[in-house]
Amino acid sequence: MSISPAPELNATLAPEPLSPSSIASTALATHPIDILRFNTCGSVDDGKSTLIGRLLYDSKSLMEDQIEALERSADITGGGQINLANLTDGLRAEREQGITIDVAYRYFATPRRKFIIADTPGHVQYTRNMVTGASTANLSIVLVDARTGVIEQSRRHSCLASLLRIPHLVVAVNKMDLVGWSEERFREIRDDFEKFLPRLDIKDVKFIPISALNGDNVVSPSPHTPWHVGPPLLGHLETVHIASDWNLSGFRFPVQWVNRPHSPSNPRLHDFRGLSGQIAGGVVRRGQKVLVLPAGITTSIKQIWTYDGPVDEAFCPQSVTLVLEHDLDVSRGNMIVGLDDFMPGAGSNLHAKICWMHPRPLQRGKKYLLKHTTNTVQAVVSEIENRIDITTLEPRSAPAELALNDIGEIRLRTAKPLFYDGYATNRLTGSFILIEQGTNATVAAGMLLPPKQVVRADEIDFVI
Question: Which positions fall inside the Tr-type G domain (predicted)?
């Protein structure tokens, strides 16, 4: 992101600070059409791919050539009905077996919101794919077959959504047409699911009866469910409140690169030096005091540049270029934080939950590359503490290794200290991946546990 500052580079007084709630309101007012990222999950053959196809088809988000390709497909049913699952199940093996294997992403928009959909597989064999697709989601749709009700996979994927700190959950009770649109059956499934909810740390849960194949309660309300109070699925997706999902307390800015335009046609840019990256948490304002890590030097924000020009303040997850008041030695991998009541954790001994994604098991003592925000460091697995039973979120006894699709708690030792937050506090500064040296294969996705001690800025003694 190369940002060319305007000729006037004079700093002005910082505006009055805004509260996190007012920042969220400002975000909605400035960007009335925001982006909702969601994933679908559930057991095999619960209708995840069909639901996404129905959303795209009924919301008129498909191109004519896509519809023509579906009509020409050999997978048209005997009654001449288009197989909407083929919009996301693109692999030949997926179409042959009628299951989802890989993660498929689709994009569509309505006048009220833009959407990024991740169609994730339901089989336990592809847990790593589900974790990958859900890692950036604001909302998760768990499909439940009305005939079979809540089964182990339903609980498993709900636990994964809770583990990944997805703030919104929709339980879509699918294939209601096959149980005669029974309100009693819907309530039975809802009551069964609600018994399981206390184990999950998800505050916003909605239940919607649908038929993905026929389109009932997907885009338009169904005449078959007069007993259901609330909007259809798309109506809920358009209106669910996500502006406050981002962490707006505790400014975090991992530096991605140093921006030096040096434009020959504009001599004013010869001395410009900005720090570009994505705000990973909190709010930054012009004139605000900040701390540069790991140097531990305090400075202030002179200017904030965006693609559209200079602004007085910016907030997570905007991408910006910051100009500091002092010319400091700052480079990629450093982090700029606000002088708030709490600081990020700092250390080289990390405690984390991981999902293992490689056929070769994770073994104690093996070295990997750990990528955290814009930092990549060498790390060694010092201890495997336990394997987590994903259907209950309870830890089991310490295993000798973690196999493919296992989720467990480990301890890591890094070659240099990292600055981080617990994943429950900040999904951006609390997540990481492990990379196998030599092959560069991503072998694990990790969620950092909170640091043992949260301290103020003036209490930290940094070691460079």
Answer: 33-245
Q: Do 252 and 281 meet the contact criterion of CB atoms below 8 Å apart? A: yes
CA–CA gap between residue 276 and residue 331 (Å, rounded)? 10
Q: What is the pLDDT of residues 41-85, one digit of tens each?
A: 877 777 787 888 888 888 887 777 776 766 666 554 445 566 676
Q: Tell me how far apart the alpha carbons of residues 294 and 461 are, in angstroms, rounded to a whole number.
A: 10
Residue for token digits 């531990």? 296
Q: Which of 178, 185, 170 is CA-nearest to residue 213?
A: 178
Q: How many CB atoms lie within 10 A of CB 76?
A: 14
Prediction pTM value:
0.79
In 3D, which of 138, 150, 143, 241 has the Cα closest to residue 194?
A: 150
With respect to residue 14, please indicate whether it lies within any of the assigned structural domains: no
Same domain, 132 and 253: no
> Rounded to an integer, what distance in angstroms lies between the CA atom of residue 90 and that of residue 93?
9
Mark whether 258 and 224 lie in a shared domain.
no
Give the C-alpha separation, 155 to 87, whole Å.
Answer: 27
Element holding 172 (H helix, E strand): strand 168-174
222 and 78 in a common domain: yes
Whether residue 316 contacts residue 48, with contact meaning beta carbons closer than 8 Å, is answered with no
Query: What digits encode the pLDDT tens for the residues 208-220?
Result: 999 998 999 999 9
Q: What are 76's two structure tokens?
A: 């048209």
